[in-house]
């Protein structure tokens, strides 16, 4: 999944669910944590695939460290 930076907190590829929840708890109100969790899972399943990410559809494209790192010709936006 995307290497996403929000303020000074990082969510890296293959982070555990427990670690992600700690990060979410620091950056969001408690009632948002579950929604963030579900949203990140959905983002990974629908857009940010390891082998062939849909970078052209990604709202995080401009801040993503993953873009072009696996297969640049497939991740460029036309």
TrEMBL record:
Report the Pfam families cross-referenced here.
EndIII_4Fe-2S
Cofactors per UniProt?
A: [4Fe-4S] cluster
Q: Which UniProt keywords apply?
A: DNA damage, DNA repair, Glycosidase, Hydrolase, Iron, Iron-sulfur, Metal-binding
**GO BP:** DNA repair
Annotated Gene Ontology MF terms?
4 iron, 4 sulfur cluster binding; catalytic activity, acting on DNA; hydrolase activity, acting on glycosyl bonds; metal ion binding
Q: Which Gene3D superfamilies match?
A: Helix-hairpin-Helix base-excision DNA repair enzymes (C-terminal) (1.10.1670.10)
- SUPFAM superfamilies xref list: DNA-glycosylase
- Metal-binding in keyword set: yes
Q: Which family does it belong to?
A: Belongs to the Nth/MutY family.
Question: What name does this protein carry?
Answer: HhH-GPD domain-containing protein
């Amino acid at each position: 999944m995307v290497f996403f930076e929000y303020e000074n907190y990082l969510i890296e590829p293959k982070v555990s669910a427990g670690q992600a929840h700690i990060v979410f708890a620091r950056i969001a109100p408690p009632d948002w944590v579950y929604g963030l969790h579900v949203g990140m899972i959905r983002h990974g399943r629908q857009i940010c695939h390891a082998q062939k990410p849909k970078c052209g559809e990604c709202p995080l494209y401009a801040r993503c460290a993953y873009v072009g790192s696996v297969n640049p010709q497939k991740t460029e936006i036309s």
